[in-house]
């Protein structure tokens, strides 16, 4: 049986004094997850707003992705299919500490 869903993501961006903030909201229809991201322009760099927007938005969506993975891991454990044992691989993308 085919099952189709549509999840919607809304991303709001704001910039002030070289700092761009993003808030992403994922609406699954049954719950909403909110992620946050920040990007700061180095004072020595040329200010290109679109770069800050892309970084902040991607970090906000990465935050949501981590929340989804945590929820899936918890649900897997509930049904007796927990995460694989062994070392965890590093996450893909830049960490938020580089903001």
Descriptive report:
The protein is α+β, with helices and mostly antiparallel strands and 99 residues long. It is built from 1 helix and 3 strands; from the N terminus they run E-E-E-H. A hairpin with a 2-residue loop joins strand 1 (8-16) and strand 2 (19-27). The chain is elongated. The model has no long low-confidence stretch (mean pLDDT 87).
Structural class of the helices, strands and pairings?
alpha+beta
The end-to-end distance, rounded to whole angstroms, is 44 Å
Summed up, the helix count is: 1
- Please state how the strands of the largest beta sheet are arranged side by side: 1-2-3
Average pLDDT value?
Answer: 87
How are the SSEs ordered, and which strands pair?
Layout: E1 8-16, E2 19-27, E3 32-40, H1 49-78
Antiparallel strand pairs: 1-2, 2-3
Summarize the structure.
The chain is an alpha+beta fold. It contains one helix and three strands; from the N terminus they run βββα.
Keywords summarizing the entry:
three-stranded antiparallel sheet; alpha+beta; 3 strands
């Amino acid at each position: 049986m085919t099952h189709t869903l549509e999840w919607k993501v809304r991303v709001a961006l704001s910039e002030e004094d070289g700092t761009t903030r993003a808030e992403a909201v994922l609406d699954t229809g049954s719950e909403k997850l909110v992620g946050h991201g920040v990007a700061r322009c180095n004072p020595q760099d040329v200010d290109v707003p679109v770069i800050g927007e892309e970084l902040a938005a991607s970090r906000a969506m990465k935050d949501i992705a981590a929340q989804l993975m945590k929820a899936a891991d918890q649900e897997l454990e509930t049904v007796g299919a927990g995460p694989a044992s062994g070392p965890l691989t590093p996450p893909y993308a830049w960490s938020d500490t580089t903001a």
